């Protein structure tokens, strides 16, 4: 089935990397880095299925050329530790054709990146001939600066935020599921950007092998990462088999309980009541979530701002006071040249000048003290004591918020579990109505069932037994009749 993968990294000069070299490797081309005066030739590598550069509105047409684009990116950066590009790597569903995968990637890149102002260099790779043949994937290199007709502008810091990364991850899952459903129909596999724990799935996740471990495994040897994955898969298979055995045993025990025959109307009412109770349960948990008081998290930047904000405020006040003093003394000096009182009494003019000089000296001293206060706090924040203070405040806020966040996650898992059960109940209710159209009058069910799920599975087994005895055409006709009845009820209301 389709696998979800979305990973992001930053290409930095401090790591000894070049955006031109990275683009050449991913596209399988020969490009020359003008800054380094070095060529990078990867034309011999295989597996590059498709490449293209997608430009936002207003970007120079010259940037449609890969060499011009990434050399311009490198030229726009002056720092030795510059972050020259961002790369996103996504897994592509092997269930789609090459053209469908290209359409999928193009839609996602356009909406997630290009419409926000980034230039995207896309390279779609095929699986390694000796590796997993489902491993279709795409590399998306992205610019980090705004761009217009004149070229690259300032860095866009909003693209670096964790919230933005989370939004991209969710968006990739939504676009992928939509394309899978479009190509394969309503029964298409689905992917999720959430962790297995957040999805309420009781199984461990495998780890990404990476190129080194993949090469070791292809050579018939066992890598450390491969061993971890084999242990995880065995554990998951054992857990799934155990869950299946428990369900099977539960169904056998349900058949051994005293049974009673319940009419189809009674079954439908019971399922409707169960549906309503589940929805009330979800509504209650969601209300509980809204009422959870979550202490605000503290970022390191918030602590730095708090420590230095008073000193910077005093600096701004001192700067304003100096400017006001300058303006006042300038105005007074102009008066001294025209007022008769100053012209007739030069000594008075001298005293006025002395007062101005003292006022300027005081304003300059206050400004110097304010600047020194800011520098003292900046130096302290960079010191070991300052860094410890910041980390302590952040850890304290994180620990204070942890119980509320954990409670919220627990409620999320409960809600998702009940929502999955609601889907099952809805499916069984539809089957009951279809089976009723095909002649099912009653269902034998346990009198003292352990829980509603036990009854639900018993009813589902009875309806599927009825459906198994008729043709697919009869089922289709019954389903159409049920749908028309539902539409009629809607029009009546």
Outline the secondary-structure elements.
Blueprint: E1 6-12, H1 19-27, E2 30-33, E3 38-41, E4 48-54, H2 66-76, E5 83-92, H3 98-112, E6 120-125, E7 136-142, E8 145-148, E9 151-155, H4 162-184, H5 210-218, H6 224-256, E10 259-263, H7 264-291, H8 300-336, H9 340-344, H10 346-382, H11 384-437, E11 442-446, H12 452-468, H13 472-492
Antiparallel strand pairs: 1-5, 2-3, 4-6, 5-7, 6-7, 8-9, 10-11
Helix pairs in contact: 1-2, 3-4, 6-12, 7-11, 8-10, 10-11, 11-12, 11-13
Describe the fold and architecture:
The chain is an alpha+beta fold. It is built from 13 helices and 11 strands. The chain has helices spanning 19-27, 66-76, 98-112, 162-184, 210-218, 224-256, 264-291, 300-336, 340-344, 346-382, 384-437, 452-468, 472-492, and strands spanning 6-12, 30-33, 38-41, 48-54, 83-92, 120-125, 136-142, 145-148, 151-155, 259-263, 442-446. The strands form 4 sheets. Strands 1-5-7-6-4 form a 5-stranded antiparallel beta sheet, with helices on both faces. It is extended and about 120 Å long.
